[in-house]
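Now for one protein, fold included:
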Amino acid sequence: MGGVVDVVVGYTGGKKKNPTYQNIMDSTEAFLIEFDPSIVSYEEILDEWADQHAPFYPSKCQYRSAIWCCNDDQRNAAQKKIEELSKGGQRKVYVDLEPLSAFYKAEEYHQHFLEKQMSARAPQF
């Protein structure tokens, strides 16, 4: 997506420090997006998130759907997107909105996961 500078996979939302995939404790798997707001807006990122995500079923903590916001503007935009997904309350949406908290980078094998999977499946000539 144009304007996205970096995406880091990790863990956040928990109270216990230094979670890992094997010991995630009370954290949630998440990704941290660094973007250039002069190229892509936060709302456009939320649109992409909504296009690729279906938060219509409850999940346990590790896999729950959540958005961690840096400020009130982000929180308001995220709340608006959630309301759009719920189609005026006709559909239950399971997304937690929380203030940004400590983020712990996941193990290297989680970073750029899809690229690694596609590369491993590419024919070798």
User: Anything to note?
Assistant: The chain has a mean pLDDT of 88. The radius of gyration is 16 Å. Helices lie at 42-52, 72-85, 113-121. Strands lie at 4-12, 28-35, 66-69, 96-99, 103-105.
